[in-house]
Design goal:
Layout: E1 3-7, E2 12-14, E3 20-25, E4 28-31, E5 39-48, H1 67-72, H2 87-90, H3 96-102, E6 107-113, E7 117-123, H4 129-133, E8 138-145, H5 148-158, H6 168-171, H7 181-191, H8 193-203, E9 208-210, E10 217-218, E11 232-233, E12 240-249, E13 252-255, E14 258-261, E15 268-273
Parallel strand pairs: 11-14
Antiparallel strand pairs: 1-15, 2-3, 3-4, 5-12, 5-15, 6-7, 6-8, 8-9, 8-10, 12-13, 13-14
Helix pairs in contact: 5-8
């Protein structure tokens, strides 16, 4: 039996014929694809370390932060989930330097096929990681915009007719029906032409560049069998998660006993056995 132990972080992923996953545990990383089909055991030691400041904490907030960091860091602010309300753009950012480096830069608005069509935003450095993390089987950048705030404003417009969240349980039950994302992109451009023009008029013609030459990206996940019923496993309720690893999709480990969202437990000290 092989064992590794350390504070866990979101899985690293790489695009290939199928997505390749590695699990960070402290200073080490464990390749997970070779473990599919094997019995895998993850044990929570009861210790949680803040992913930002490394202090020990009894409770984790926002996927791995201690409460003081959760309250003071810009990356934990509400506008992370609602970029159209960006505090940096409003001049009220908790950490203006962080906002300058992470929000006042080009972002992409994209379409993805997760459990169906959705719209989302991401920094260029997070392509294709963002799509993989969401469990998308297809993705296509449709616009390049000059800031996170503006990407959020465009996303809000498109979200009037396209979902902006992934139905994670449906995503974990199988591969979404393929769709023509180029056709969807063109439909959206026609449908929201006036809103797009208004945003360009307000923020500058070059602030939004509609992308006509991008090719959809296909993503295949290493899954041998999908669950018919999705049962979420939770280290806050059970110290040990164990079962046959059937596959990995998004940031979820799919066991024959349930599914585990690794990202949710950032900073938890885990002991991996296989």
């Amino acid at each position: 039996m092989t064992q590794s132990e350390g504070y866990v972080a979101k899985m690293h992923s790489g695009l290939g014929d199928v997505v390749q996953y590695d699990l960070p545990l402290g200073e080490k990383t464990v390749a997970l694809n070779p473990l599919i089909g094997q019995t895998v055991r993850l044990e929570f030691t009861g210790v949680i370390q803040c992913v930002a400041c490394s202090r020990l904490t009894k409770k984790s907030f926002n996927q791995g932060y201690c409460y003081p960091c959760f309250k003071k860091l810009a990356q934990c602010d509400t506008c992370i989930m609602s970029p159209e309300r960006c505090h940096f753009a409003a001049g009220t950012c908790r950490e203006p330097e962080w906002g300058e480096a992470n929000c006042n830069i080009d972002h992409f608005v994209y379409l993805a096929n997760t459990s169906g069509l959705k719209v989302g935003i991401t920094r260029h450095s997070q392509i294709p990681t963002r799509w993989i993390d969401q469990g998308a089987s297809q993705a296509l950048p449709i616009a390049r915009v000059s800031s996170r705030h503006l990407s959020g404003l465009l996303e809000v417009q498109i979200a009037q007719s396209v979902a902006d969240k992934t139905a994670w349980q449906a995503m974990l039950k199988g591969v979404a029906e393929p769709m023509d994302l180029v056709v969807k992109r063109d439909e959206i451009k026609t449908l929201y032409a006036s809103e797009l023009a208004q945003l360009q008029h307000t923020h500058g013609i070059q602030s939004i560049q509609w992308l006509e030459d991008q090719t959809p990206v296909d993503i295949a996940f290493p899954v041998t069998a999908y669950p018919t019923k999705v049962k979420a496993l939770n280290f806050d309720k059970q110290a040990i998660v164990e079962g046959c690893l059937m596959g990995i999709k998004g940031q979820y480990l799919i066991f024959d006993t349930g599914v585990l969202n690794i990202r949710k437990f950032g900073g938890y000290e885990l002991r991996l056995s296989y």
